[in-house]
Design goal:
The protein has 535 residues and is α+β, with helices and mostly antiparallel strands.
């Protein structure tokens, strides 16, 4: 069987592992931190066609993105849902309403077989009725259209990993690649350090796909020799605030008054997710946090858009940053750098015949990027490539036609069997899809498994046990931010640290010192990465 090592456990790496395993490869995936701990987690949570890419003439990317949006709505329906977006137009906006109306018609034309309703246009008076809190000064009207939102990108990554494992893939997090063993212009094996146990391990390979996101250059060129980098990443930062008086009833897309770049205020969970920025990032990739200038930019633009908001730094629940793994470009405007994915064959660029790198891409198009990467890997073998089926086979947990119908049809039985309330049931289906029963069966077998972890959220104690036993969770931070949304509650998980720590200690045989270390590490992570705006 053909051996494939995938480096990187974000959305691209997870998608590649799933596709490869489904096409018969012997797959090993290695992630140095935790799955979805980098760019994928720090996204805007949008599954979108890229309306603004039209102005850069990237019609192929828009068509691809719209096609992939439709596929994801069908293969992962419990976590990805349609999102109604209102694009407000002001006198200072870079595009007039007539131009945008033409752009929307083109956007819809490129979206073949779309299940989304068509766009609508609004006069200023109509807009004031549907969004009374919106700034009325110099308002020229607006356009409402549909895209989609992925509520929990980390669960999308995990669904791909579960699907990969079901097809035979071996999945490792907290395994840092430290060396590619090369001989005769080929990578013979990949050496990785198990950061939990402190052991080096060797993984044989026939082909290696480097999908390490912003860290791609470090894998291929660890000593940073003078050569043109593959990645020229830009930082995107967001703030999360409680819903405010006269806040948006729809997702809002506007143009920032300061620099005209796209600006979103998105309903997300019980909050508003506000972003994003787009600035060159040249510092550490491992300690990302928004700068204070980015924070103030997002605050100012929000208050301009909704004058009654009056938010400030103290209003922010948490903030976060990610680096987009964009292809290196000399363009001065970061927003003009393409969001397309690029497959690099290192046999042509560096003489390493069995190494491939995936550069760029975005959350929406990961599945197709993975398909192209595996097609490229197959070209390095003498075998025909099996047909890719990732566009029609549901992701793990996604075998349902419609999430609301699924909840309606299954809640009564779940309530009868486990006495679960509807809010908790809905929460479990959103996270685990059709596998919600797996979590409830764990709860059945564990004393207190049905108890809520925190008064600020709907997560059950059984989810922690399930995360350790079945979802590769090794640290407290893994569970709090990437297996469950406990860390995204209003307490940022601080009220739940002790409970989660005790549950994990029981599963992983931590002593008291190790448990305290994990709790301290989580609190430090939150302070450094999510609360930097308080500094």
């Amino acid at each position: 069987m053909k051996k494939l090592v995938v480096i990187g456990g974000g959305i691209n790496g997870a998608g590649i592992a799933r596709d490869a395993a489904m096409r018969g490869w012997d797959v090993t995936l290695l992630e140095k931190n935790d799955f979805c701990s980098g760019t994928s987690w720090a996204s805007s949570k949008l599954i979108h066609g890229g309306l603004r890419y039209l102005e850069h003439g990237e019609f192929g990317l828009v068509r691809e993105s719209l096609r992939e949006r439709e596929i994801l709505l069908h293969i992962h329906p419990h976590n990805i849902h349609p999102l109604h977006i209102l694009l407000s137009v002001y006198r200072y906006s870079p595009h007039w309403k007539t131009t945008l109306r033409f752009g929307m018609k083109l956007y819809e034309f490129l979206s073949t077989n779309s299940s989304m309703p068509l766009h609508e246009t609004f006069t200023p008076d109509q807009l004031n009725e549907i969004e009374p809190g919106l700034d009325k000064r110099e308002l020229r009207g607006g356009i409402a259209y549909w895209d989609a939102q992925c509520r929990y990108p980390e669960r999308l990554v995990l669904a791909n990993l579960h699907s990969a494992e079901e097809n035979g893939a071996k999945i490792y997090n907290h395994h840092q690649v430290i060396r590619l063993n090369k001989k005769d212009n080929r990578v013979q094996s990949v050496i990785a350090k198990d950061l939990i146990l402190g052991q080096d391990k060797e993984f044989e390979c026939g082909v290696v796909i480097n999908a390490a996101g912003p860290w791609i250059d470090e894998i291929v060129n660890p000593h940073r020799a003078s050569r043109r980098p593959m990645i020229g990443g830009t930082r995107g930062s967001h703030i999360v605030v409680p819903r405010f008086t006269d806040g948006p009833r729809h997702a809002i897309y506007s143009n920032a008054r300061l620099d005209g770049r796209p600006f979103f205020i998105l309903p997300w969970l019980n909050y508003y997710l506000i972003g994003t920025t787009d600035v060159r990032h040249r510092n550490s990739l491992d300690e990302l946090a928004p700068s204070l200038s980015e924070i103030d930019y997002l605050i100012t633009e929000t208050n301009q858009c909704f004058p009654a908001a009056e938010i400030n730094r103290n209003s922010i629940l948490f903030s976060f940053s990610g680096v987009r793994p964009l292809p290196y470009s000399g363009k001065k405007n970061p927003g003009a750098i393409t969001r397309r994915h690029i497959i690099i064959d290192h046999g042509k660029t560096d003489g390493i015949t069995n190494l491939i790198s995936l550069v760029g891409g975005k959350l929406t198009t990961y599945r197709h990027a993975a398909q192209l990467a595996i097609d490229a890997a197959h070209k390095k073998t003498s075998e025909l490539s099996p047909v890719c089926l990732t566009d029609i086979i549901p992701l793990w947990g996604g075998a349902m036609e419609n999430v609301e119908s699924y909840i309606t049809n299954n809640f009564a039985d779940a309530h009868r069997r486990w006495n679960i309330d509807e809010m908790s049931f809905r929460h479990l289906v959103t996270l685990y899809g059709t596998h919600f029963e797996d979590v409830l069966k764990v709860a059945d077998l564990h004393p207190g498994g049905f108890k809520k972890i925190c008064s600020h959220g709907s997560d059950l104690r059984a989810q922690v046990i399930y995360a350790v036993r079945h979802e590769w969770a090794k640290t407290l931070t893994d569970v709090m931010l990437r297996r469950t949304p406990i860390g995204m509650n209003t307490c940022l998980g601080m009220d739940a640290c002790e409970i989660v720590g005790n549950l994990m200690a029981g599963e992983l045989r931590w002593n008291e010192n190790k448990k305290r270390e994990e709790i301290d590490n989580y609190k430090s992570y939150v302070t450094r990465r999510l609360l930097s705006h308080q500094n």
